[in-house]
Amino acid sequence: MAKVKLTTTQVKKLKRLLDMWYRPSELAEETGMHINTIYRLVERGCPHRRQGRHVFIRGTVFRDWVIENRDTPKRHLAEDEALCMHCQAPRKFTVVRVTRMSRKREQVEGRCAVCGGTVYRFRAARRRTADPNHRTSDQTNSEGAESK
Q1: pLDDT tens digits, one per residue of 37-56
Q2: Pairing relation of β-strands 54-58 and 21-22?
């Protein structure tokens, strides 16, 4: 069975459901989900009651079932891990190239240690180490003025 994907707003709205019977249209309105999503959840095994052709779902039972069957929150990767799209899992990787995207972000491109596929990871930019051979424009101008 596929896991239920919810936004944080929908999770907050689920917590407000009362211990009463709801029609799917009422649940959709209360939770911010589409009515077809509610019917799909009923087909996937959400506890419900049928009276003729009408479907009724108890609010607190629905909330508990959805939270139990929802996607887990994002997993934070270790510094040396990236999500390999080929393996569909977090994997350790070897760094091939680091590209600075802005002052605060950089993209790390690497190879998956398991399948050898290309993986990408964005991270906070590292501070550049002081290079003793690197000269700033101030140093270059002052040396040029002294030699004249």
Answers
A1: 999 999 999 999 999 999 99
A2: antiparallel
Report how far residue 18's alpha carbon sits from residue 15's, in angstroms, rounded to the nearest whole number: 8
Specify whether domain 81-124 bears CATH 1.20.120: no
| Pairwise CA distance, residues 38 & 30, whole Å | 11
**Domain 8-68's class?**
mainly alpha
Mean pLDDT, range 120-148, rounded to an integer: 60
Sign of CA pseudo-dihedral 129, 135, 136, 139: positive
Residue reference for tokens 């972000």: 105
Across the chain, mean pLDDT equals: 84
**Taking the model in full, what pTM does it have?**
0.51
Two tokens, residue 141: 């101008």
Name the residue ranges covered by the structural domains of the chain. Answer: 8-68, 81-124
